[in-house]
Design brief:
Endonuclease, Chain A; alpha+beta; about 170 residues; seven-stranded mixed sheet; two-stranded antiparallel sheet
């Protein structure tokens, strides 16, 4: 069991690459989401292709984000009809945390959004300066999962001060 502080290029290798190894579930929380690209099985492709390969293996995917993604993401998403039905998605304009949990065994929390400049394979000259923590410590993972799940289940919806900006309220 461990906890490591990681930055910049390490985020891609230690957070995004392991997503493809998930066996049961992946939870992703991000405020911004774009069509980031990754290296996968010798090719460079949309991260959505990786998620699509996971749902084909019956890995559950939850995506929680703050705003609707842009046109490039939507165009890419349209190529993966398996994701339309299998990937659960919630929108909450107050989400600002960045979490990725893989099978409840590995978790990331930090500053990087699910974008090319945050977690994708951008070159060092085009990458954001990001940092975060990756851990296998069960107590730490439980706390990350609890925060994610509270938002996912709508715990804060009824008293939310941003309800007017929420196009698709959870509750």
């Amino acid at each position: 069991m461990s906890i490591k502080f990681i930055t910049n290029e390490q985020l891609y290798e230690q957070v995004i690459v392991p997503v493809a190894t998930a066996k049961q579930f992946v939870w992703i929380g991000t405020s911004d989401i774009k069509d980031l690209h990754v290296k996968h099985k010798g090719s460079i492709l949309s991260f959505l292709a990786v998620l699509d390969s996971l749902v084909k293996r019956k890995v559950a995917i939850r995506l929680l984000h703050a705003k609707e993604p842009g046109p490039n993401y939507k165009k890419s998403f349209d190529k993966y009809p398996g994701l339309w039905k299998a990937m659960e998605r919630q929108l909450c304009p107050r989400v600002h945390f960045k979490h990725i949990v893989i099978d409840g065994k590995v978790a990331y929390t930090g500053s990087a959004n699910l974008t090319g400049a945050g977690l994708g394979m951008k070159s060092p000259n085009k990458r954001n300066f990001e940092s975060g923590i990756i851990t296998t410590l069960p107590d730490f993972i439980d706390q990350i999962m609890m925060q994610f799940d509270e938002v996912w289940m709508g715990k804060f919806c009824k008293q939310c001060g941003r309800r007017d900006y929420c196009d698709d309220p959870i509750l």
